[in-house]
């Protein structure tokens, strides 16, 4: 303990899979900073501010979890907040190649900051924010995929009436 870990991502939107990784990381590290990054290659549904607010709401019962946003290199942010570790969730083998590239460049930029890969819980191994948005857009039930506050935010974004 006594270590600060970053849990970076776009979180557009935060899913139960993300939340599972965050909760598990909070049991291992003394502080977990969930940081919303804007990926230039993605067109987000939610603004950075909306994603931060949703994350704050779903992590409010985790006293050692903080939520922030940053635009720039993850390693620069990690240095600025004194983080020693980066937590990355892996759903399947297909995630590993991409995540290994990111971990390798981060290690090259600062060898003092370690990357820890955490396997997704089997019940969330298929889950991604992209899938959630696609399913929600067509008014399918997403309550088992995202926290209630996120489900409500998706309803509003897609102008889906309540049952």
TrEMBL record:
Superkingdom per UniProt: Bacteria
Pathway annotation from the record: Cofactor biosynthesis; coenzyme A biosynthesis; CoA from (R)-pantothenate: step 4/5
Catalytic activity, reaction form: (R)-4'-phosphopantetheine + ATP + H(+) = 3'-dephospho-CoA + diphosphate
Residues binding substrate: 10, 42, 74, 88
Molecular function terms, GO-annotated: ATP binding; pantetheine-phosphate adenylyltransferase activity
Chain sites annotated for binding ATP: 10-11, 18, 89-91, 99, 124-130
InterPro entries associated with the record: Cyt_trans-like, PPAT, Rossmann-like_a/b/a_fold
UniProt subcellular location: Cytoplasm
Site (Transition state stabilizer): 18
EC assignment: 2.7.7.3
Pfam families in the cross-refs: CTP_transf_like
GO biological process: coenzyme A biosynthetic process
Main location: cytoplasm
Cofactor: Mg(2+)
The Cytidyltransferase-like domain, residue ranges: 6-134
Gene Ontology terms: cellular component: cytoplasm
Family: Belongs to the bacterial CoaD family.
Subunit structure: Homohexamer.
Annotated function: Reversibly transfers an adenylyl group from ATP to 4'-phosphopantetheine, yielding dephospho-CoA (dPCoA) and pyrophosphate.
Name of the protein this chain belongs to: Phosphopantetheine adenylyltransferase
Organism: Bacillus taeanensis
Gene: coaD
């Amino acid at each position: 303990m006594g270590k600060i870990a970053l849990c970076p991502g776009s979180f557009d939107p935060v899913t139960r899979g993300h939340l599972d990784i965050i909760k598990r990381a909070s049991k291992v590290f003394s502080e977990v900073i969930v940081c919303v990054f804007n990926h230039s290659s993605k067109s987000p549904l939610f603004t950075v501010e909306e994603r931060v607010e949703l994350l704050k709401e779903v992590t409010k019962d985790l006293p050692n979890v903080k939520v922030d946003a940053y635009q720039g290199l993850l390693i620069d942010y990690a240095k600025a907040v004194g983080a020693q570790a980066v937590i990355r969730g892996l759903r399947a083998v297909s995630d590993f190649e991409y995540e290994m590239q990111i971990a390798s460049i981060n290690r090259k930029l600062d060898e003092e900051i370690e990357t820890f890969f955490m396997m997704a819980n089997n019940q969330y191994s298929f889950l991604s924010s992209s899938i959630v948005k696609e399913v929600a857009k067509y008014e399918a039930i997403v309550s088992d995929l995202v926290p209630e506050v996120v489900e409500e935010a998706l309803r509003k974004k897609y102008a889906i009436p309540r049952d």
